[in-house]
Every structure is written in C-alpha cells, then in structure tokens.
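INFO  loader      accepted 1 record
INFO  loader      residues=272
INFO  predictor   begin
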Amino acid sequence: MQTIGERLEEARKRKGISIREAAEATKIRSDYLHKFESNQFDLKLSEIYARGFLRSYAQFLQLPVEKILNDYAALGRSESKPRTPSREVYGRMDVSIASADNRATDSNASSDSPSDASAEPARRPSSLNRSGSSLPQGPSISPILIFRGGITLAAIIVIFLLIWAGKAIIGGSDDTVAKPNTNPTKSITANEASISLIAINSVRVKVTLKNTDGTPGEVLLPDTNLARGEVRTVSKPGPILIWATEGKNLQIEISGKRYPMPFEGYNRAQIN
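INFO  predictor   done
INFO  writer      dumping tokens
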C-alpha cells in the first residue's frame, strides 16, 4: 500500500509540475510540500495548519481528501503536541473549509498552548488577505489626461487639414501674370471644323473667332486653366485666335497631328 507521500508525489508528477510550481499555485511553502512527499509531517506548526496544508495540497492534486486525512490521523498526528512559538509567516490556508474535527483540534491546541493562541490569530489576517489572482494591477489613467489628449489630437488634425487645403488652393491657382507681348502674331493654316488643345503643363488658354478686321470676335473657349495632360476640343467655324500664358506648355492637334505653339511665353496664335 502506498504511503501518503508516495501518493502525493505520484499525483504531482502525473500533472507534470515541479514542487516549486505546486508551491506557487497553492501558496504553501515548497519545503512543507517536500516534507509531505517524504512522509515527514513534523512541520513545527499547530495541527490545524498542518492538516489544512495537507488538505489544500491533496485538493490541488485532485486526490481523495478525506482518505488522505484519515491516513494522516492514523499516523497519530491528530493529537496536539506542545511546541515552541514560531514567528515565521506561513503560506495561505483556506480556514473556511476546515472540518468540524479540525476546529475541535484547534480549540484544544489553543487551550494547551496560550502562546500559540496569541500568535496564530495575528498571522491569519495577513495570509487571508492575499489575493488569489496573479495578474498585475496596471496604473489607472486619469480621465482628465484622456480628455486633454483627445483635444490635442483633434487640434493637430485640424491644423493638418488647414495646411493641406492651403496648399491645394495655392497649387491650383496660376500665379503667372499675363503680360502683353509685342512680338508679331504667328499663324497656323488649317481648314478643319475643330481642333484640340493639349496641355503639356499647367497653362491658361482662351480661344476666339477672328473678325475680318483682325480683332477678337466671338469667344469659343473662355479664359480657362488646363492642368497637365488635359485636352480641350474647340470648334473652328473660321479663322480663330488662341491666347496662352505659356506657349511652351500648349500643343495644338489638327487632323491627328500635333503642332507646338509658335511662341514660348504669353502671346496669341492665329489659325486660318
């Protein structure tokens, strides 16, 4: 027949844990657990503590608790024995599960040893107040700090949006100032009913009919900004005049063929 210690050791190894891990889980000192498994029950503690530790360890290992305690009592360990007071702080023990005979033994031990009666209650509050949770308690965050952080983040977002909007407005406007050019107007001869204006880069254009006296007539394309790569098709009922702020940024497509503007800066071209 197996001894108490052999059953405890076998159950612990079957769970695949060490004595140190069992001590951390049960809050019982590892040297006490080692003595239990070695069938050494003289822990120099009052009997209620020794039985309580043995009960907790048996419950942790999922062994029949009452059978373990009965075998322990059969060893003659249930009788109270005088001992010298000890100031050690022992592991946590759940006193609420102690049986009636444990409480009776505790009352006999307290009547036999007055010094133990005064020492043991002093230890209980510290052991019973321990938390069973091993999770760390993180610091709480003040709601005021959260509120201030939210305001700061919102302000940063608003500033970013204002900067982005300002860049979009400035980038979309053409700062090139139209300046009159005294160079003679260049002309491109074509008889097609329409032409295409192709922006090589950002440019502002305007297209009108040409009157018989050479002055601008009906507006075919009002003053318009063309972005890079943008194409505009304009009807050509007759001779037309094309203004461009940057001639080098504009090409004219006629019958599938592209022609550069005959000037680079601000000027106008005539297409007959």
